[in-house]
Amino acid sequence: MELNVYFFTILIALVAIYKMDLFAAFLNLRSLAEPLPPEFQDVFTGEDYEKSQEYTRAKTVFGIVESTFSSGLFLVFWFAGGFGWLDQWVRSLASNEVGRGVLLISAIGLGGILSSLPFEIYRTFVLEERFGFNRTSVKTFLSDQIKSLLLSATLGLPVFALIVWLFVRWELAWLHAFLLVTAGSLILAYVAPKWLLPIFYKFTPMEDGELKKAIDDLAARCGFPLAGIHVMDGSKRSTKANAFFTGFGNTKRIALFDTLIQHHSVPELVAVLAHEIGHYKRGHILQSMLAGIAESALSFFLLGFFLRNEGLFHAFGVRETSVFMSLILFGILFTPLNRVSSILRGIWSRKNEFEADAYAASVTGHPGDLVTALKKLTRENLGNLTPHPFHVFLNDSHPPVHRRITALRAG
Predict the structure, then answer these.
(1) I need a labelling partner for 346 at 20 to 30 A (CA). Which of 241, 284, 355, 393 fits?
(2) Do the Cβ atoms of 188 and 154 come closer than 8 Å?
(3) 60 φ, ψ (degrees, to nearest 5)
(4) Secondary structure of the chain in the HEC alphabet?
């Protein structure tokens, strides 16, 4: 391992990101001392608020422990020469770059799964169970893990292998790889609602009735090309509630968690779905897709400059350069830029949430329905009513609920 500019740049960046996240977590914990905001006193009891604060506190402490463990594990693996050992191991088992690349990403992926599995088990069966959210059986948990692993292998390994092959064989490989990943992402967005999500969840067409008629009327009023309305069996895994729409073209569908339907009135559900439609009507889905494509293009373009970079390889104790290891090491080098990108996406996403709220209030003509729905969702999901602004800035895709309600009331 060589203590060069790459070594110190990556180490300083990783430590800085960890400390920044830790500081934000502590600020968020301090904000829990705030009293129950008056706006929520019609929905939250004192007991509800105390429980939501305790849930935020427990999640935050758990997140600190998990982050500390994962960061420490990475540094130990790095400083102990793990990357050099891994490079030699895959070279001893495969004779070409593609085969070595598949072995490498499989080993790293499996290591990540095994190291995170105890935290997933604790989160599901201890933390979520403690606060009354968990409904996941051991059988369902194991089934989800196996399905996720098989899907990742089936979809991810061939793509990674093809990317390695492109960089080995082609000029302007970064452009070809970018086009490959972009095409794959678009295909995945098309097929996922119809073929992949049902692997994990059961989607049942909504029966005719007051709610379905209200949603159909809303979609027609908004000019929303709706392919179907489905109820998702979210209660099989959690009591938490949500709604979303997925896909595009003739696969676009609205999905409501069964837990959402159980606890909300028809006007509130219509307001929630109007918000989701608002993302579509305001172009947020297309914007997000284009931003993702642009970010992917930048990543692959920069990768072209760092391919087989000896300084980067030596910083991780890898003696011989290769395409397959370049992809892994560049991903680590790119971590700080990814973090900046995440923060920018959060700022953009929070702005879009305000726009979708405004659209829902406008199209339904009853902003109070969305206000009530937001309050109930926050109570049912034990959301944090007083998040610290710095924590929101770093991590949150949605604005604090009190700010959304203030904006809705202001019109």
Answers:
(1) 241
(2) no
(3) -65, -45
(4) CCCCHHHHHHHHHHHHHHHHHHHHHHHHHHHHHCCCCHHHCCCCCHHHHHHHHHHHHHHHHHHHHHHHHHHHHHHHHHHCCHHHHHHHHHHHHCCCHHHHHHHHHHHHHHHHHHHHHHHHHHHHHHHHHHCCCECCCHHHHHHHHHHHHHHHHHHHHHHHHHHHHHHHHCCCHHHHHHHHHHHHHHHHHHHHHHHHHHHHCCEEECCCCHHHHHHHHHHHHHCCCCCCEEEECHHHCECCCCEEEECCHHHCEEEEEHHHHHHCCHHHHHHHHHHHHHHHHCCHHHHHHHHHHHHHHHHHHHHHHHCCCHHHHHHCCCCCCCHHHHHHHHHHHCHHHHHHHHHHHHHHHHHHHHHHHHHHHHHHCCHHHHHHHHHHHHHHCCCCCCCCHHHHHHHCCCCCHHHHHHHHHHC
For the CA atoms of the chain, what is the radius of gyration? Answer: 23
Q: pLDDT (tens digit, 9 = 90+) per residue, 305-360? A: 899 899 999 999 999 999 999 999 999 999 999 999 999 999 999 999 999 999 99
**Would you say 204 and 231 are in contact if contact means Cβ atoms under 8 Å apart?**
yes
pLDDT in tens, 218-244: 988 988 877 778 898 888 898 887 777
What is the number of other CB atoms lying within 10 angstroms of the CB of residue 110? 12
The number of residues making up the chain comes to: 411
pLDDT in tens, 121-167: 999 999 999 999 999 999 999 999 999 999 999 999 999 999 999 99
* Predicted TM-score of the model (pTM): 0.90
The Cβ of residue 38 has, within 10 Å, a number of other Cβ atoms equal to 7
Give the residue extent of every domain in the chain: 5-202+281-410
